[in-house]
Automatic annotation (TrEMBL):
Name by which UniProt lists this protein: Cytochrome c domain-containing protein
Cytochrome c domain location: 132-247
Signal peptide: 1-20
Record GO terms (molecular function): electron transfer activity; heme binding; metal ion binding
Keyword line: Heme, Iron, Metal-binding, Signal
Gene3D superfamilies referenced in this protein's UniProt entry, alphabetically: Hydroxylamine Oxidoreductase, Chain A, domain 1, Hydroxylamine Oxidoreductase, Chain A, domain 2
Length: 458
């Protein structure tokens, strides 16, 4: 057996040294010397080493190259394919879709295709799309919204059309009909595990005023601990097996909680929603389908570091915050907008009236920040960047603007119904404080502020 392996190794070395000479690889590199590269890929590399030298170098250091997977193995196409074209005697496609990746990675392809990531381009037709594509304009849509969400990629003569292309969106709709884009996270052409596990990979899209997950995580205890132990964790990021509680223990990042494996029973997945129990994106949060099972999966990850009482206590607090947001602000705000629309006090054109912007900011920005801050244990994002802004927007922007619209445009019936609507709203214990506050509580608050800040605080 040893002799056969030795002969095989010698044969691979001979083939690979010849290939290395063709593409300009360093033949003294032991790992490069064991690569088998197909003749088709050798032909690709023969040209592209001069045209795109860094691209070739990225591939040459990749696990794909180690496995003998080259340019042609990923880009080959059939003549009948919608995105196929002839390229120096080869039938190839520019876009490598999840279906292409799935030939070698079927489990991952299935999980990605079934995930919310693959559906991200469905935002076209939503309020987000109206803002990015119409209010702001198509160039912004191509370079902003669609670069995270993805979009449908049309082709002409097999080639993607400029404007929509290039596109790296996670929910890209590919010419072969598949949805998703593996390269949105696994950057070409090195496909580095270390790079894809870096929190910044997720932060490329999950940042900013409406979904600041990366900022929230960075200043949570998880993020602070991760940075404190970064030099230790970095040594593990490029390993094929990356199990919490076995290969590392110091702190979690995005992949750990949403995709990673743990010794406490969590299995690795490419469906990033497989462990999420709440949907926090829409104006009013709701539980995801089969949410109890999904929460149980996330709890398996938590259990690698936390006791059951801690985990259950966190979810109790988290659920309370989401329900508070829903019932105190989100549902009443939605009812206000419904009242205005049903009575034709605002027209159907989105974003052409101030109150539509106020409402959008309330749920899409401040409301999301509060809910996401709670979900990732970041108190300042939950409060000051979150529900504080929601409350201010609700009481001092949305309601006054609705009052103004009713006063200016409403008839007697509408004004009477609006007065009844507000009376019912402020009779709710959540909002009763706005007109009625316990006098004894007011006295205690005033005394506290005077004692702490002086007479000027009154």
């Amino acid at each position: 057996m040893k002799g056969k392996l030795s002969k095989l190794r010698t044969g691979l070395l001979a083939v690979t040294f010849a290939a290395a000479a063709v593409i300009g690889l360093n033949t003294t590199d032991a790992s490069a010397a064991l690569r088998y590269i197909s003749k088709e890929s050798q032909a690709c590399l023969g040209c592209h080493k001069g045209m795109n030298p860094a691209l070739v170098q990225q591939w040459a250091t990749s696990k794909h190259a180690d496995a003998g997977v080259g340019c042609y193995e990923c880009h080959q196409a059939n003549k009948g394919d919608k995105d196929a074209f002839q390229h120096f005697g080869f039938t190839i496609s520019t876009i490598v879709s999840p279906l292409d990746c799935g030939k070698c990675h079927p489990k991952e392809e299935k999980e990605v295709t079934e995930s919310h990531h693959a559906k991200a381009a469905q935002f076209v037709g939503s309020l987000d799309n109206v803002l990015g594509r119409i209010v702001e304009g198509e160039p912004l849509f191509n370079l902003g919204c669609a670069q995270c969400h993805g979009r449908t990629i049309p082709v002409k003569n097999g080639l993607p059309i400029l404007g929509p292309w290039p596109n790296e969106g996670i929910g890209r709709v590919n010419p072969d009909g598949s949805k998703g884009n593996c390269a949105a996270c696994h950057y070409r052409h090195s496909f580095s595990l270390k790079q894809v596990r870096e929190p910044g990979t997720c932060g490329k899209c999950h940042q900013g005023p409406d979904h600041p997950q990366i900022e929230i995580w960075e200043l949570s205890k998880h993020g602070i601990a991760y940075k404190a132990h970064l030099s230790e964790i970095e040594q593990t990021l490029d390993r094929a097996k990356w199990v919490l509680g076995e290969d590392y223990y110091q702190a979690p990042n995005c992949v750990t909680c949403h995709m990673g494996a743990s010794v406490t029973g969590a299995k690795p997945t490419h469906d990033v929603g497989a462990r999420l129990s709440w949907t926090l994106r829409p104006p009013i949060s709701k539980h995801k389908p089969n949410w109890q099972a999904k929460r149980a999966e996330m709890k398996k990850v938590c259990a690698a570091c936390h006791q059951k009482l801690w985990i259950d206590g966190f979810y109790y607090q988290y659920d309370q915050l989401v329900e508070l947001y829903n019932n105190k602000f989100a549902k009443p705000a939605a009812a206000i907008m419904k009242f205005l629309r049903q009575n034709k006090l605002i027209d159907p054109i989105p974003f052409n009236q101030k109150i539509e912007w106020e409402y959008f900011l309330l749920w899409h920005h401040e409301g999301r920040r509060a809910r996401m801050g709670a979900s990732m244990m970041a108190p300042d994002w939950t409060h000051w960047h979150g529900l504080f802004e929601v409350a201010y927007n609700f009481y001092f922007k949305l309601l006054p603007e609705a009052d103004k619209i009713v006063a200016e445009k409403g008839n007697r019936r509408v004004k009477r119904e609006w007065a009844e609507f507000k009376k019912k709203l402020f009779s709710n214990p959540y909002h009763k404080w706005f007109h009625e506050f316990n006098k004894e509580e007011l006295r205690k608050i005033a005394e506290f502020y005077v004692k702490r800040y002086g007479e000027a605080a009154q």
